[in-house]
Amino acid sequence: MIRLLLALQLLLTSTYACTTAMNCSLNGLCKSGRCVCDAPWSGIRCGVVNVAAAAPGGAYGWHPNVSSWGGNPVHGDDGKHHLFVAEIPGG
User: Fold this and answer.
1) Are residues 74 and 91 in the same domain?
2) Per the domain annotation, does 61 fall within a domain?
3) pLDDT tens digits for 13-43?
């Protein structure tokens, strides 16, 4: 029985241990054999996204809500990320 438990522990340890950020789905870093996930990621391999309810009101700061389509995030010269979308007339 003890051998079985030790074998199971070895299997679980080797299954969940990481060696590079690739083992952490590129959503975190591998530190001391464990994935340290970037926000909003979680899970043993940083493959689960944490989601929350959307804030009430319109999207993109508009009220009433404005429908949009597409979205191409770009990294600006200001060091921020920007998302450009196409607005659909009439919502």
Assistant:
1) yes
2) yes
3) 555 789 999 999 999 999 999 999 999 999 9
